[in-house]
Structure formats: C-alpha cells, structure tokens
Amino acid sequence: MNTRVLLQPAYVIHRRPFRNTSLLVDFFCPEHGRIAAVARGARRGKSRMHGLLQAFQPLRISFSGRGDVKTLTNAESAGAAVPLTGERLFSGFYVNELLSRMLHDHVEHPRLYEVYRETLDALANTALLERVLRRFELELLAELGYAVNLESDCREHEPIADDKFYRYLPDVGFEVAREDENDRKRIFAGAHLLALGRLALEDPEIAASAKRLLRQALEVHLGGRPLHSRALFTSASGGKESNQVAD
C-alpha cells in the first residue's frame, strides 16, 4: 500500500549522497520513528532543500512511497536550527548516530522524540554534558526495551547498596560482585550506580564510571561496529578521546 504522510515533525539524523544529485536521508519522526527517504536533487546548489536538510534543524516533512525507502516530497523549516559548536556539536552527532543505528524503521517513539528535543536544547546551553548524554542513553535503552535497572540487583532483588560492589551483566542487570572477580571493567560501586540513577554526575570518578557502564550497555546493540561520531571527535581533537561520549 502506498504511504502518504504530510507535514510530519522531523529531524535529520543521518544523510549520505545518493546517485548524482540526490540524498538518502534518515529522519527521526515522533509518529513514524526512523524513516529513510530519497531527497531528489537535494545536492544541487539551487535546490531549496540543499541547505535545509541539516542536522539539528527542526523540520516538517512530507513523504510517500510503497517500500521501506520513501520519497521526500516536501520539507520546510519548523524553527531555528539548534546552535551547537565544539564538543557539544560532536555530542549531537553522537546522539544522532545512536538513533540512526538503534531505532527500527517505522516504529513510533513520541516520548523519545521529546527526549531528543530536550537533549538538543540542553546541549545548546550550559547543562552538564555528562548528565545530558547519560540521560539520553538511559532513556534510549529504556524506550527500546533494554532499560538499565539502577535500583535493585537481578539475583536477590535487593536494593542497590552504596557500600557494595556489583558486576554488570548486559541486558540482565547487576549482581553482587564476588571478592575474586577478575573482570574489573564490569564492576561498579553501588554508590556510583545510585548517583547515576539521580544523574548526580558532578564527581569526575562517578562520571567516568557512568560512561563506562553505558558504553557496555550500548555496545551489545551496536553489532560490534564502532561509532563514526567518536572517530570524528578523536580526529578533530588531535587524537584525544572524548571524556563524555560513550561507544
């Protein structure tokens, strides 16, 4: 059946050249989730869409088509683009790549769409970067059914205690760590887990622990492929890895 959608709120989360003059664009929409659409002629300098189909620009789009890849029939601005620079720009690319890689096509995510808008707004102001990114990662995992339980362990279902240490089992939860545990990368202080649950990440040690945990939680669902946004940041920063972006 031919799909025809008019003036759907959307953001560009990924785009790449398609044939000679067109773009293949991944959009994130509240009612349709991730949508892939061909923007015909959008790479021409005279095209109205040439400067419009950019990241962090709120849009209203219209598209149609029978298959998984739609045809973009119209796009218009729905407000000013979110101004991001420096590390916050790369953090925005990171958030977009997570969406592009982890969302399923044509699955509605109205709640996550609002979280994404709030994330962009927070990146554009002085909000603590670690808090902004960790909140988004936790919300994304929860929306997709992979929520990280930061309140109780997965064996005895006892509340996480701030004076204990826990081993993280991706997509399962936390169990009290054994004293002879060898894989220290998967061990987390209960106090750090409780702080992450409150998004209290001002302490650099807690922030580093939270980043390490979310990296492990996400990598299970990224198919073992590295994130291009991290490599882009590393290249632009002269080989220094971002302290905030997990991969």
Write a structural description.
The protein is built from six helices and eight strands. Strands 1-2-3-5-4 form a five-stranded mixed β-barrel. The mean pLDDT is about 90. The protein starts with a strand and ends in an 11-residue tail after the last helix. It is an alpha+beta fold and about 250 residues long. The protein has helices at about 85-100, 110-125, 130-145, 190-195, 205-220, 230-235; strands at about 5-20, 20-30, 35-40, 60-65, 70-75, 165-170, 175, 185-190.
Task: State the shape.
Answer: elongated
What is the strand content?
A: 15-25%
Query: Number of helical segments?
Result: 6
Order of helices and strands: EEEEEHHHEEEHHH
Q: Determine the fraction of residues in helical runs and give it as a percent range.
A: 25-40%
Runs in which pLDDT lies below 50 for 5 or more consecutive residues are none
Rg estimate, integer Å: 20 Å
- Would you tell me the overall average pLDDT? 91
* Spatial separation of the terminal alpha carbons: 38 Å
Report the count of strand segments.
8
Provide the structure class.
alpha+beta
Largest sheet: number of strands, sense, barrel closure: 5 strands, mixed, barrel
Write the layout of secondary structure elements.
Elements: E1 3-18, E2 22-29, E3 33-39, E4 59-65, E5 69-77, H1 86-102, H2 110-124, H3 129-143, E6 165-169, E7 173-176, E8 187-189, H4 190-197, H5 204-219, H6 228-236
Helix pairs in contact: 1-2, 1-3, 1-6, 2-3, 3-5, 4-5
